[in-house]
């Protein structure tokens, strides 16, 4: 595999609205981010992905873009963006933006023109169909946030348009070459500005199976998940290859695709030497136990499931490329709340989960607040919830016969607000995030869990992440940590997640005791050095170690091991 500039890096996702508010309006902004670049540097990250900051009505928190060439005034100005790029460059930080091109906002000029004249040029930028009220819809696909993918075209009672996500997110018609050219032009405009690349949003959806057809309904609403259509759509790679050829490859940009449900044979076309993207996220763990019925029907993830999913992903890509490894992002619950059983979310457990994920082969991708072990924020009523997905799932749960309390339970486990509550900088009011009223309340646990406190504490989650990043950057271990092969170790031992990382010269053994009771693990060789330990001691006797509850270690083994 060809070596790339980004391979040894550590990446970090910022959700700008909730990172740092510089002017007291309760909304995080670009100047807030600029003020924290030294912090990111100190943490040790190299690549920073910003969730969308383009002009947007914020119907889906910026994933509904009304102008790709402008910064939303709530986040700042284009001058702020230029300054951010310049300041990042000074610090050797790479800025990556979100590329949201499956759809735009219904307030984008293209869609407004399409509404003015559906038969004109811009009508062809979207999927618009004739439809008389009362007639059957072209297909029974369900949109991601509930209801049909079809909505009436504003101003045209006899027409409808397609949106895989919210009705304020009309899908762009990638079959139209003019749409594609406009998108490539925009991408290059940003890359010319000095951007290092993009995280590519919802990209599998750009290829629709046409002509439209129904699939068997999977809920009482008579609709079906979009997954059925995606499984039957072919040709997404042709679009993406054309995009890469016209944009990313010309700049050696770093790109991370948000790709779900790719076809196995397409993997080498998505990532790796022949890939359209540099990398893509590993969602195998995040989709564990997902139920077609909705959040309310989703069982908690066990240690064994987590381990099996990680190892399967590693196996799938070992000959192909690198995945971006995550425990959470802005669409997921906090990893520590999701993957550690309720009531057991200790500092040690948080470090174990982080360590096991970080040491996998691939690009470690941290999400803001993960480095201090931020947790889900509970809501007591649906009125407190902002997330449009959570509001839909609440309704789905009620329709299925759950009580409001039970429906809120499901919302609290999965709401995207969990990861969107403001970053907890210190123990001052609003966790130091804003001097105004935060757009989404801070997690009341900020007085306990905050960066300022963790800086002072050598045993904090934050200092642990710093050690992991330092190991990745250490010239003595870089080769094995970045490029070393991953080989599962004793995968059948319950609640032990263990693997080797091997290079020609070195062998590391990563061990995590994924339970709240001690556990013995046989050693395959002799320990040379304990490189990382989330506790202070490691109990060893001949040929084995006895791991404390949630203990996590990275061991360097002697050569012959
Ligand atoms: C992606 C984003 C998510 C958004 C959706 C529609 O999944 O991560 O936040 O709602 O795409 O753009
Ligand atoms: Ca602000």
Q: Outline of this structure?
A:
Helix content is 28%, strand content 17%.
Question: How is this structure best described in words?
Answer:
- With 561 residues, the protein is α/β, with parallel strands linked by helices.
- 28% of the residues lie in helices and 17% in strands.
- Helix 12 (347-358) runs parallel beside helix 16 (461-473) and helix 13 runs antiparallel to helix 14 (404-414).
- The model has no long low-confidence stretch (mean pLDDT 97).
- Calcium ion binds next to loops.
List the ions, cofactors and other small molecules found in this model: alpha-D-glucopyranose, calcium ion
Which structural class is indicated by helix and strand composition?
alpha/beta
* General shape: globular
Helix percent band: 25-40%
Radius of gyration: 24 Å
- Low-pLDDT ranges: none
- Main sheet: which strands, in order across? 1-2-5-9-10-11-12-13
Q: Indicate the proportion of strand residues.
A: 15-25%
Largest beta-sheet details: 8 strands, parallel, barrel
Spatial gap, N to C terminus: 26 Å
Keywords:
binds alpha-D-glucopyranose, 5-stranded antiparallel β-sheet, binds calcium ion, 561 residues, globular, alpha/beta, 21 strands
Helices and strands in order, then pairings?
Elements: E1 11-14, H1 30-34, H2 37-43, E2 47-50, E3 54-55, E4 67-71, H3 78-90, E5 94-99, H4 109-116, E6 128-130, E7 150-153, E8 156-162, H5 177-192, E9 197-200, H6 226-232, H7 236-246, H8 248-251, E10 254-257, H9 267-270, E11 279-281, H10 303-317, E12 323-325, H11 335-339, H12 347-358, E13 363-367, H13 388-399, H14 404-414, H15 451-456, H16 461-473, H17 478-483, E14 485-488, E15 496-502, E16 507-513, E17 519-522, E18 527-533, E19 539-541, E20 544-547, E21 552-557
Parallel strand pairs: 1-2, 1-13, 2-5, 5-9, 9-10, 10-11, 11-12, 12-13
Antiparallel strand pairs: 3-4, 6-8, 7-8, 14-15, 15-16, 16-21, 17-20, 18-21, 19-20
Helix pairs in contact: 12-16, 13-14
